[in-house]
Amino acid sequence: MMIKASHHKVIFGIFKIYTRFSIALNFKKVELIGSLPQSERSILLIANHFSWWDGFIALYLNMKFIKKRFYFMMLEEQLKRFWYFKFTGGFSVKKGSRSVIESLNYASDLLKDRRNMVLIFPQGEIQTSHLMEFRFEQGVSRIVDRAGAGSSILLLVTLQDYFSNKKPSLYCYIKEAQPTDTIEQICSQYNDFYRSCLAQHINLKK
Length: 206
Prior knowledge:
Number of helices: 6
Number of strands: 7
CATH superfamily: Glycerol-3-phosphate (1)-acyltransferase
Shape: globular
Distance between the termini: 49 Å
Strand content: 15-25%
Number of domains: 1
Helix content: 25-40%
Structural class: alpha/beta
CATH architecture: 3-Layer(aba) Sandwich
CATH topology: Glycerol-3-phosphate (1)-acyltransferase
Largest sheet: 7 strands, mixed
Radius of gyration: 16 Å
């Protein structure tokens, strides 16, 4: 059986303070590039997974800009190891098991509440940020299909650069995806957006 999420007042409060402190300590700045949807719909946040920081980055963006109730999908073995994440919005998924469908349906049900945001890393594992093309796990389309038209899909591409500074800066490119119902279309939109972010990033002023 999958592990469901909750938001423990004390644990989640400490987690948010830790996130703010860690981001400020380890990065020169966090810059959001793009526009957020103006509607009151729930949000499925699809992000690239290139580092240990990714969940913290998404939570930081949510606290500062998006301001939704934060949920995220996490591999079951990792969530059991870091058990406290289930009290900060984390819920489990176990690849190759019957509970995968339960996890995907759970994510979809969360998105039926406009106050919620669900973060997923559809690559299914941490991969280098130097990829030129991403492949998504099939479950993404099930989440989108069951959540219905009441949710927005946000594409997030996070890139980092040091330039001449001791600490790296985070550049978080964000865009609302066009409505779609297939994993292939979602993946294609993300790949197109990723390549456009790289092209824009090359011309970024230091």
